[in-house]
């Protein structure tokens, strides 16, 4: 399943409908290279911005310009907060994104919350909810203001859903709020460690402070959107900072209640794939219900002589990921009954 597709398989066997870009975990900071928390993998804090610039240049120059780019979270590194450089670094990265000729949809990850409160992010340029689609006469598909999630239609019969994987979290939240108390209770019930970022000894290692989860309210909303897409024979792409499928992720990097999210997705026919970041190592798997889970390799741990981004080309019968650098090519065939007849 993880074999690299042949160039022939990636070739245009049918008419390309549209394309979109994907990139994850830029984690820019104006710092010398460092290492991950385990001290095992190098992080290229300054060079990550050059990688982003290279990706944008590539997307702008593609023969078939992508309709949009999905930024999968952790756009600047948490170290910025220690140096009072959060706003300056965010401004630098957002100025870089201005060079992109198409809209970018921003997902929020743990590093967004290391730098900013949820309230700040809601009023920042990282809130791209203004790009959402509103389905007339279906108010149940309108997301609540209590979480950062929305859906949009980049091409007829294709719906993208952006999820808030830190809807349940102790990060970026007012510590005097009932929701913070609720989330801390959930975390401590599953993680008795003094250091809440440590998964040591946990039977469910995803219950660490740098992860989060999806509220029941958000999952109910997702269910309504997918119900609409099923009824209208749409294909759906879901985006989240945190992965939700164990075979496509390190077990420590999963969303707290990933099983609940999978249960909703698996109760519908329309979902083609689920894109996430967070792991930095990347991951890929097709689940038993034919949904493809792709965790994108992180820019922050990509050497200067490589790259880490991709373009997804969408066809009536499949999607193909054309990776750059350490992001491998992938093919995501639709289930036979799901092929689009154009």
TrEMBL record:
Its cofactor is Mg(2+). InterPro entries: Calcineurin-like_PHP, Metallo-depent_PP-like, MPP_ADPRM. SUPFAM superfamilies: Metallo-dependent phosphatases. The keyword Metal-binding applies. Residues 20-280 form the Calcineurin-like phosphoesterase domain. It comes from the Eukaryota. GO terms for molecular function: 2',3'-cyclic-nucleotide 2'-phosphodiesterase activity; ADP-ribose diphosphatase activity; CDP-glycerol diphosphatase activity; manganese ion binding. It catalyses: CDP-glycerol + H2O = sn-glycerol 3-phosphate + CMP + 2 H(+); ADP-D-ribose + H2O = D-ribose 5-phosphate + AMP + 2 H(+); CDP-choline + H2O = phosphocholine + CMP + 2 H(+). It is an enzyme of class 3 (hydrolase). Gene3D superfamilies: 3.60.21.10. Its EC number is 3.6.1.13, 3.6.1.16, 3.6.1.53. Keywords: Acetylation, Hydrolase, Metal-binding, Zinc. Monomer. PANTHER family: MANGANESE-DEPENDENT ADP-RIBOSE_CDP-ALCOHOL DIPHOSPHATASE, PTHR16509. Hydrolyzes ADP-ribose, IDP-ribose, CDP-glycerol, CDP-choline and CDP-ethanolamine, but not other non-reducing ADP-sugars or CDP-glucose. May be involved in immune cell signaling as suggested by the second-messenger role of ADP-ribose, which activates TRPM2 as a mediator of oxidative/nitrosative stress. Belongs to the ADPRibase-Mn family. This is Manganese-dependent ADP-ribose/CDP-alcohol diphosphatase. The lineage of its organism: Eukaryota, Metazoa, Chordata, Craniata, Vertebrata. The gene is ADPRM.
């Amino acid at each position: 399943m993880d074999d690299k597709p042949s160039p022939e398989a990636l070739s245009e066997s049918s008419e390309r409908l549209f394309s979109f870009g994907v990139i994850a975990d830029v984690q820019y900071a104006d710092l010398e290279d460092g290492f991950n928390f385990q001290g095992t993998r190098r992080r290229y804090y300054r060079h990550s911005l050059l990688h982003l610039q290279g990706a944008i240049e590539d997307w702008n120059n593609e023969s078939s310009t992508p309709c949009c780019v999905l930024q999968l979270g952790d756009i600047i590194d948490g170290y910025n907060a220690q140096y009072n450089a959060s706003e300056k670094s965010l401004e630098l990265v957002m100025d870089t994104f201005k060079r992109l000729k198409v809209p970018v949809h921003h997902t929020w990850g743990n590093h967004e919350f290391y730098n900013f409160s949820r309230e700040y992010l809601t009023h920042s340029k990282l809130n791209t909810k203004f790009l959402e689609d509103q389905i007339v006469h279906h108010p149940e598909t309108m997301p609540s203001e209590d979480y950062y999630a929305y859906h949009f239609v980049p091409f007829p019969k294709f719906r993208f859903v952006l999820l808030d994987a830190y809807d349940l979290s102790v990060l970026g939240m007012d510590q005097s709020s009932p929701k913070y108390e609720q989330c801390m209770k959930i975390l401590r019930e599953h993680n008795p460690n003094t250091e809440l970022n440590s998964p040591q000894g946990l039977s469910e290692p995803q219950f660490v402070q740098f992860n989060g989860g999806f509220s029941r309210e958000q999952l109910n909303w997702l269910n309504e959107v997918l119900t609409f897409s099923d009824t209208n024979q749409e294909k759906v792409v879901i985006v989240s900072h945190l992965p939700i499928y164990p075979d496509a992720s390190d077990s420590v990097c999963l969303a707290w209640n990933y099983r609940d999210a999978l249960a909703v997705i698996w109760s519908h026919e329309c979902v083609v794939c689920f894109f996430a970041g967070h792991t930095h190592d990347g991951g890929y798997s097709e689940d038993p219900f034919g949904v493809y889970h792709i965790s994108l390799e992180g820019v922050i741990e990509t050497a200067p002589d490589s790259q880490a981004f991709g373009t997804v080309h969408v066809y009536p019968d499949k999607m193909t990921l054309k990776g750059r650098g350490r992001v491998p090519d992938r093919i995501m065939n639709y289930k036979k009954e799901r092929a689009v007849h154009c």
